[in-house]
Amino acid sequence: MKTAVIGLGSMGWGAAISLLKAGFAVQGCDVRSDVLTRFTEAGGDACTTPASAVDTADVVLIYVINSKQVEDVLFGQNGALETARPSTVFLLCTTMAPSATTAIAERLEAAGMQVIDAPVSGGHVRALAGEITVMASGPQEAFDRASAVLDAISAKVFRLGDRLGAGSQVKMINQLLAGVHIAATAEAMTLAAKAGIDLKTLYEVIRVSAGSSWMFENRGEHIVSGDYTPRSAVNIFVKDLGIVASEAERAGALTPLTATALSLFVEASEAGLGLEDDAAVAKILARKSGAILPGMEG
Q: Can you tell me which family this protein belongs to (predicted)?
């Protein structure tokens, strides 16, 4: 089976490497030449356009940043639909508003393609290990054809029914929790620093206590070490919590914690931290509190 991965960021790279390890032929597409060079060195077939990446693919995984980029790589100039064969299976792994996912899926199906709404979670380490979680929905035939690919990139695939958009709805709720937990981690670490608590000790205590979360355990370590190398950037949660806020408003649901966390991520982005690790929102709270975190200048 031949596969293509469009977008070799942290999650797309992990998926592409996992597919190579599983013995798939993988064509990878990205706008960054250095990433394509690394992909070639890893054993993949590097492509500069989506059209050239998918011309022989049976299954295509889309891992770009947002719905606009998904539309561009699918339907734009040198986009995937220029060369994709009929019934090619497209896995939409990008986090998008459910309404955007549905609209894009309908256009793909109208063009004779098969689609799985397949947003993912787990971070870059699990992606490299082929152990991400996939929140997937779509027709059975598409799942049957893509099952080996899904097995190669994931530890768990949640089947959420046939309705395209259901996967994106569940991912939206996951991102609500993830964003709020990152903001809460930043607040907790900043308060601890201001109170004079040793952050490494605090981290070791909380990570095995009731107040912990997956995000505290993961992002808390970034704050303790002062390492804001972007695994997932601040701007990702500006986008994702923005999706939560807009979809909640459309549904008439109240999301006050989302609103607070989103404002913190927006402030961090506007302060020039948008491309740093999302744990960098702690720097905003620290500056306002007069606290010094590891990696910050006094």
A: Belongs to the HIBADH-related family. L-threonate dehydrogenase subfamily.
**Is 171 assigned a catalytic role?**
yes
DSSP-derived secondary structure letter, 85 = P
CA–CA distance, 16 with 185 (Å, rounded to integer): 31
- Selecting among 171, 200, 283, 288, the annotated active-site residue is 171
**Longest alpha-carbon distance in the chain:** 62
Q: To which H or E segment does residue 222 belong?
A: helix 214-225
Per-residue pLDDT reduced to its tens digit, 16-29 = 999 999 999 999 99
Q: Where are the domains of the chain?
A: 2-164, 168-289
DSSP output for 189-221:
HHHHHHHT--HHHHHHHHTTSTT--HHHHHHHH
First to last CA, the chain: 55
* Model confidence, pTM: 0.92
List the beta strands (DSSP E) in 106-250.
114-117, 120-121, 132-136, 154-159
Class of domain 2-164: alpha beta
* Domain 2-164 identical in fold to domain 168-289: no
- The torsion angles phi and psi of 95, rounded to 5 degrees, stand at -75, 115
Beta strands in 16-77 (DSSP E): 25-29, 45-47, 59-62
Cα(21)–Cα(152) distance, integer angstroms: 8
- The residues, ordered by sequence, that sit 6+ positions from 55 with a Cβ below 8 Å of its Cβ are 83, 84, 85
What percentage of the chain carries pLDDT values higher than 90?
96
CATH of 168-289, one of 2.40.50.140, 1.10.1040.10, 1.10.3210.10, 2.60.200.30: 1.10.1040.10
- What whole-number distance in Å separates Cα of residue 145 and Cα of residue 94? 20
